[in-house]
Amino acid sequence: MNIVLAGGGTAGHIEPALNLADHLKLIDPDINITVLGTARGLEVDLVPARGYKLELIPAVPLPRKLSGDLVTLPTRLRSAIQQTRNLLTDLQADVVVGFGGYVSIPAYLAARGLIPIVVHEANARAGLANRVGARFAAAVAETVPGSLPRAQLIGIPLRKSIENLDRAKSRNQAREFFGIAKDAKAILVFGGSQGSVKLNSVVNDCLNNGSLTQFAVIHIVGQKNEFQNPASSSYFPRNYLDRMDLAYSAVDFVIARAGAMTIAELTAAGLPACFVPLPIGNGEQSLNAQPVVMAGGALLISDVEFTADFVAKQVLPILRDEGALAAMAKASAALGHKDAAAALSDLVLSVVRNT
User: Fold this and answer.
1) Largest CA distance in the chain
2) Quick one: average pLDDT of 259-287?
3) Read out DSSP for 96-161?
4) Residue ranges of domains in the chain, CATH in brackets
5) Which residues are within 8 A (CB) of 210 and not within 5 positions of it... i.e. 6 or more apart?
6) Is residue 74 scored above 80 in pLDDT?
7) Which of 35-39, 70-74, 165-169, 198-202 has the lowest mean pLDDT?
């Protein structure tokens, strides 16, 4: 069986595709998996690092305003579609599974009428590529109800370390890993794969004004950002962390952006959170967070309103209240989809078998 995955550009598109690939390989090691990508995306590094074959196709970003790129778009798109169709034929692909982004549009249009398509949407508000692909897909999966017509609610495929995480069982090991005292209340702050200047700034303000003195803080500042405060017995800054499972096990509360993968991991882990959506884009991060907020598993605050004063008045009282923490954790966990990789694998394989 030859399965082609299309989901390049950002980690939010690539990670779910690779997590699906991992699960498909568990089901049947003989399945051949190829990932489509472009030379400009993170997939150039991430896909080979996970051991999967990467095939590059032309990037065809859709212009957001009138420009010369809009005039040449039809020609560039036709060329990308033809190149992708030739590649799918050479690979003898049985199905294309798309996750959105620049790569997915030519992949969907190339596969149309040739092989079946499965579309996976991670966000509450679907992007253009997935809205197009969903119109003629054999099956559609979603993470937030109502994002696409005919979609099955499946969630986002997660890494096995998160999917199988038992926070209570791993807590002592995780705290030893970071050096956090067993009886301390702990907070994790991170701003996605690149970090967040705004979240970093507010945490630094909290450290400087002393409001976090009684708490342990794991702070992932981003690979290109510098620490503004030195590490201490209660402050643990990192540029990057590849053991997020240990971070989730070590803490009681999370402050983060509201990317789809972040929310999927935190709900699977059953962690209370404060979401601070990115103030750019089409508002999808706020929409992503709404189900968790409405269920009582998270707070939601705009980027401009997120301040050290907000943390002191709204977040820290929750850390001091065991009942509030437990209630939020339970509400968060109720929305988690730990079996999303298995569910999406079953959907993809059923499409292939029924073709």
Assistant:
1) 63
2) 93
3) EEE--STTHHHHHHHHTTTS-EEEEE-SSS--HHHHHHHTT-SEEEESSTTSSTTEEE------HH
4) 2-158+338-353 (3.40.50.2000), 161-333 (3.40.50.2000)
5) none
6) no
7) 70-74
